[in-house]
Amino acid sequence: MANARTPLIAGNWKMNQDHQEAIHLVQKLAWALKDAKHDFSQVEVTVLAPFTDLRSVQTLVDADKLELTYGAQDVSQHVSGAYTGEISPVFLSKLGVSYVAVGHSERRQYHAEDDALVNAKSKAALAHGIIPIICVGEPLEVRKAGDQVSHTLAQVDGALEGLSAEDAAKVVIAYEPVWAIGTGEVATPQDAQEVAGAIRARLAELYSADVADAVRVLYGGSVKSSSIAELMKEQDVDGALVGGASLDAEEFAKIAQFKAAAAS
Ligand SMILES: O=C[C@H](O)COP(=O)(O)O
After folding, report:
1. How many of the other CB atoms lie within 10 Å of CB of 190?
2. Which residues does ligand 1 sit against, CB inside 6 Å?
3. Residues 6 or more apart whose Cβ sits within 8 Å of residue 211
4. CA atoms within 13 A on the CB side of 259
5. Assigned domain for 3 exists
6. Is residue 1 part of a domain?
């Protein structure tokens, strides 16, 4: 993998872990990574926690000077106002979050989020110094029809509409085929590379080779420590967005340690 992109392993806890459980999970993860002598300059590690956990996670990370980062799972496209139940990017920024997932397929499916909203949320995050992890990917029927690339690229186009090259270079794009999420059915490395490579080529078309080179493209969908090393061998896969396996500190630490697994 001859590029300058630092791999990112992101754990999306989804609606799991109250704030006390969150503290324990982050502590266990930090210990496991310390035991493994994890080098954060080689592989970045982040956890996307429920909103109610973020203050506790921030306090722990600051107090113990942990090198792992944290993020949220959603953000409002608005800064403030009469939007009951929404969370402003300003609030997240004050809590020191580095990342926010935007347009996860569960938000698209259960909350009818469309590309325009994903675009607005991505811009709101970037405007407040938070990196959006923009989630894209096709459902099973689209994959069966062989239209996974065009479907996913249309989501990428929609998410990036109107973003400057400077902002586009900062985003993370997570390719998550919906049929692989929480099903135990991980995409093959070749499946992941096909779409990740197409996403990078689209970034070059929309912006420039430099932007395409800068953006990290993650794969998500049933990633485990047994599958990560092969996925990471693909030239356009720069990390993983991990759901279920991120709730197990030892297993998630092993995923972050994919280089050690590949070397042994
Ligand atoms: O955000 C994470 C993805 O939805 C993957 O979830 P999973 O690893 O449980 O399949």
Report:
1. 9
2. 12, 104, 176, 181-182, 220-223, 241-245
3. 165, 168, 169, 203, 204
4. 16
5. no
6. no
Q: Which domain holds residue 137?
A: 8-263
Q: Report the residue among 176, 246, 255 best suited for mutation to probe ligand 1: largest number of ligand atoms under 8 A from its CB.
A: 176
Q: Give the C-alpha separation, 1 to 92, whole Å.
A: 33
Tokens of 102: 């935007």
* Structure-block tokens of residue 121: 């949320």
CA 228 to chain centre: 15
CATH number where 192 lies: 3.20.20.70
What length is written for the chain?
Answer: 264
- What stretches in the chain show pLDDT beneath 50? 1
Instruction: State the complex-level ipTM.
Output: 0.98
Q: How far apart are CA 92 and CA 79, in angstroms?
A: 11
Query: Which is catalytic among the residues 44, 106, 113, 176?
Result: 176
* The model scores a pTM over 0.90: yes
Number of domains in the chain: 1
Q: What is the pLDDT of residue 1?
A: 44
The pLDDT, as a whole number, for residue 202 is 98
Residue 217 lies in a domain: yes
**For residue 214, is it within any domain?**
yes
85 labeled part of a ligand binding site = no
Residue 131: name the closest of 250, 33, 258, 6 by CA.
Answer: 6
In this structure, what token pair is assigned to residue 189?
A: 């490395």
